[in-house]
Write a structure and sequence with these properties.
Elements lengths: L1 H21 L9 H12 L5 H17 L5 H7 L13 H9 L3 H8 L10 H14 L4 H17 L3 H15 L6 H13 L8 H14 L6 H9 L9 H22 L1
Helix pairs in contact: 1-3, 3-7, 4-7, 5-7, 8-9, 9-10, 10-12, 11-13, 12-13
């Protein structure tokens, strides 16, 4: 028994060291063949399930902490999630890890508010993307948790939490059968269209301020145009706040159209 425990510890140590090296690999170094060799360690049956699960949890946490990257840097690359560019070259590996975990365990990590200020948001996108691909039928768990995150963000006037919720909403919309701009706008209207939080001046000001911060980073003209075509229903006495946001959208669209000409 002691020998088996020692063997498991050695295996875990080897895998952890390999994982640390893995996080430093460039896209051209990441191949499915190399990943299959790595994951064959798990399939050999010499590592106990408990040890495997502990490692999976450990690896997800380590990946999140791997070099702090700001949230808006992740927002800029979000639509490239199907590419093999950094950091999405790691998606295949993360899918393998997430398949070994219960969906609820991954969701707990994704929505852990205690690590939001210290994580690498690009790697966060990779984990979120891997989860959506791996557990497509479980996306309702993500959406339910995201609704709670939206609720908390308004109650605490927490801009970071609301930005995170919007990024998560975008990521799930990227996997919709509808065009991305339509799917995202539908999620947006479902989430905020009839919300009690946009019927209060303080909450509206908070909400619009967050939306305005996204505009300089937005590169999807389709999303902005759909947002203008299908605006939120704002009470007339608060419309002046929303108008500032729509003016920003129109200006951003013009700037991007000039760049793409």
């Amino acid at each position: 028994m002691k020998l088996q425990n020692l063997f498991n510890l050695v295996c875990l140590s080897i895998i952890r060291n390999f994982l640390k090296e893995l996080f430093l690999l460039k896209p051209e170094d990441m191949t499915k063949r190399r990943m299959k060799i790595f994951f064959s360690l798990w399939k050999c049956g010499l590592i106990e399930n408990k040890t495997l699960l502990e490692f999976c949890i450990y690896s997800v946490h380590q990946f999140l902490k791997n070099q702090n990257v700001a949230m808006m840097e992740a927002f800029l690359i979000q639509e490239r999630c199907n590419s093999h560019d950094e950091p999405f070259h790691m998606t295949f590996m993360m899918e393998k890890i997430i398949k070994s975990l219960k969906p609820d365990d991954v969701v707990c990590i994704l929505f852990d508010s205690n690590v939001e200020s210290t994580i690498n948001w690009k790697n966060y996108l990779v984990i979120l993307e891997a989860f959506v691909r791996t557990h497509d039928n479980e996306c309702k768990i993500i959406l339910r948790s995201n609704e709670e995150l939206v609720k908390r963000s308004f109650q605490q006037l927490d801009q970071s939490a609301l930005k995170k919720a919007i990024i998560i909403g975008r990521q799930t919309a990227l996997h919709s059968k509808e065009p991305f701009s339509m799917a995202y706008n539908q999620w947006f209207l479902n989430q905020f269209g009839d919300s009690l939080y946009i019927k209060n001046l303080q909450y509206i000001s908070f909400f619009i301020q967050v939306l305005c911060e996204f505009v300089p980073y937005e590169r999807n003209i389709g999303i902005m145009k759909v947002s203008l075509e299908r605006p939120l229903t704002i009470a007339s006495e608060y419309q002046f706040i929303y108008n500032d946001y729509t003016v920003l959208l129109k200006t951003r669209i013009k700037d991007l159209e000039v760049c793409f000409v």
